[in-house]
Amino acid sequence: MDVVLARYRIPGTLVDVERRAADLALEQTVEIPEALVQQVGLKAHQVGQIRQILPLETSEQLFEVEIAFPADFASGGLGQLSNLLFGNISLKPELRLTAVELPPCVLSQYQGPRFGVPGLRQLLGIQGRPLLATALKPRGVPVALLANWAREFALGGGDLIKDDHNLVEPHFEAFLQRVNTCQAAIHEAEQTLGRAVPYLPNLAGPADQMPRRIEACLKLGVTGFLVAPFLVGLDTLTSWTATYPAFWLAHPTFAGGHLHSPQHGMEASWLLGTLFRLAGCDGTIFPNSGGRFSFTPQTCQEISAAARNPLGHFPAIWPSPAGGMSYDRLPMMAEQYGADALFLIGGALLNDPAGLQAATRRYRDSLGQLFPDAQEVPPEGFSSACEWRPRSRGTNRESNGLATDHLRFLEGFQWKGRSRTAYKETADLPFKGVERTELIGQFGEQADFDLRYFEIGPSGHSSLEKHVHTHVIIGARGQGHLRIEGETRTIRPFDIAYVPPLQVHQLLNENAEPFGFFCIVDRQRDKPQPP
Fold first, then answer.
1. pLDDT > 50? residue 398
2. Cα dist. 267→264, 277, 492 in Å?
3. Going by C-beta distance under 8 Å and a sequence separation of 6 or more, which residues neighbour residue 424?
4. For residues 170 and 191, what is the distance between their CA atoms, to the nearest angstrom?
5. Which of 11, 316, 398, 444 shows the greatest Cβ crowding within 10 Å of its Cβ?
6. Bridge partners of residue 415, in order along the sequence
């Protein structure tokens, strides 16, 4: 059975830790006394299982506890995963989550980062050195001055510009006016430079405005966004990153309460490195050691490793140290973080007596000296970040990956810009002769559903399965059968069938011609289950 492995650090005597570990395993899964587990018909694997309790060398009164949780208890999003790992027990003292191992069935629920390290390097045409970023701030500064700073930073050789996390307008019109002004200034600099300089506005404000703000920014040519996951919500953020084609940079504000006590909370590497990466963020900001925050060099290294180490199908994302960074510390930072890092330098640039453009050029030249083998060749045809859109993370990666309001129908039940994908056989849910074409939903469309076209060859069939989400099936080609809860229904072109939640169903083609149908499902949906 698939499990989520979590490790906790718990102080006390061995007897105390064994008792607390058993309490943790119950509290995080079934939340009832152990004596009731069998009485209510629960199976042993539905309760958290203590795998091991090991003393830590640093103390005789400190233990590492490993607990296995059922993987299906983590379904439903990052909010539920966080609740499973550190929900009710966050209210109990002296418990620290130190590490998490996620099985493939959990990782596969998330699309992950759209850009990551390789995608942003492709856009910028920069290889082999860290990127230099800055923040537009503070709130209250005239918009024209912010836009001028953005232009000066770009002309000085800066690579990426983001808003400060406190740069917030409660009104949509004021937000859009500022973003438009700053984006126009950066675009002007891009035309002079002949290379892209992405701009990331801060997504903060009334929740009901967020989709409108995102869509308006994308229409202005904005390439990415700054977002605070602990303010907007992990599942909201996951939905945004999966829906909107952009570079997403995570800000750690409001997360510090989980991080700083060595006796309680969560390790920064899990929270800022892995969890934000699962949510689809392409970079993660954290306080640099030696700055105005108290992160240690070891903590910063652990966050960087979590951002870049292999993790399922996810690309590496950008560790972005920030806070209290100066020109004199660049050599040490280069050695500490290496080439795949996004150095976020704000106040030191703005406060430089030489002026922002000259100060940026000095920092940029220093990075060139520290990484002499770096290469910078802007991609042909991408002179401006605002003219670029990333590929879809859907299955049809050979298509152009763009959302469109018109998919041209081609012969053989195909569509221009979309291609078919053959299914693979699976041991638990076998099927035969099935092909799928993703049409709408996986290419940046602002939709809560996915539209797919399926085609089943002669004597083929889909898997016999059930799931919580609903299906709408529309016949398109040939003739087939829908078996649902023991009944068989014939599906012809333009027939419409509805499959309710958890009803066992299967589609079959018992004819000599292909059977094709459209299928509409929720964007966020559960995995199919055996009958």
1. no
2. 9, 15, 56
3. none
4. 32
5. 444
6. 409
Q: Answer yes or no: 519 catalytic.
A: yes
Three-class secondary structure of residue 377 per DSSP? coil
* Tokens describing residue 291: 């700055």
Q: What is the pLDDT of residues 277-318, one digit of tens each?
A: 999 999 999 999 987 887 999 999 999 999 999 999 999 999
DSSP 230-292: HHH-HHHHHHHHHHS-SEEEE--TT-GGGTS-TTSEE-HIIIIIIIHHHTT-SEEEEEPTTSS
d(CA 84, CA 161): 36
CA distance 135 to 207: 23
Per DSSP, 466 falls in state B
Q: Quick one: residue 485, left, alpha or beta (phi over 0 = left, psi -120 to 50 = alpha)?
A: left
Candidate from 57-71, 172-186, 434-448 with smallest mean pLDDT: 434-448
Helical axes 143-155 vs 172-193, angle rounded to 10°: 20
Q: Which residues, 6+ apart, have CB-to-CB distance to 454 below 8 Å? A: 434, 435, 436, 437, 462, 507, 516, 517, 518, 519
Q: What token pair was written down for 35?
A: 């004596």
Which contiguous run of DSSP H or E holds residue 55?
Answer: strand 49-55
The pLDDT of residue 174 is above 50: yes
Determine which one of 217, 281, 386, 519 is catalytic.
Answer: 519
Peptide bond into 372 cis (omega under 30): no
Helix (H) or strand (E) holding 54: strand 49-55
Q: How many residues does the chain have?
A: 531
Question: What domains can you pick out in the chain, each with its CATH number?
Answer: 3-107 (3.30.70.150), 116-387 (3.20.20.110), 409-522 (2.60.120.10)
Judge residue 290's burial from the number of C-beta atoms within 10 Å of its C-beta, 0-12 exposed, 13-18 middle, 19 or more buried.
buried
Most distant CA atoms of the chain, gap in Å = 79
Cite the beta strand spans of 155-271 per DSSP E.
Answer: 160-163, 199-200, 224-227, 247-250, 265-266
Apex CA 176: angle with CA 173 and CA 180, to 5°? Answer: 140
Cβ–Cβ < 8 Å for 284, 303: yes
pTM of the model: 0.75
What pLDDT is stored for residue 404 in this prediction? 60
Please, are residues 315 and 118 in contact by the beta-carbon 8 Å criterion?
yes
State the Cα–Cα distance between residues 143 and 285, nearest whole angstrom.
Answer: 24
Q: Strand pairing partners for 50?
A: 67
How many other CB atoms sit within 10 Å of the CB of residue 530?
10
Q: Which residue is associated with the tokens 């949906």?
A: 525
Q: How far apart are CA 270 and CA 261, in angstroms?
A: 15
Q: What value does the mean pLDDT take over residues 73-97?
A: 95
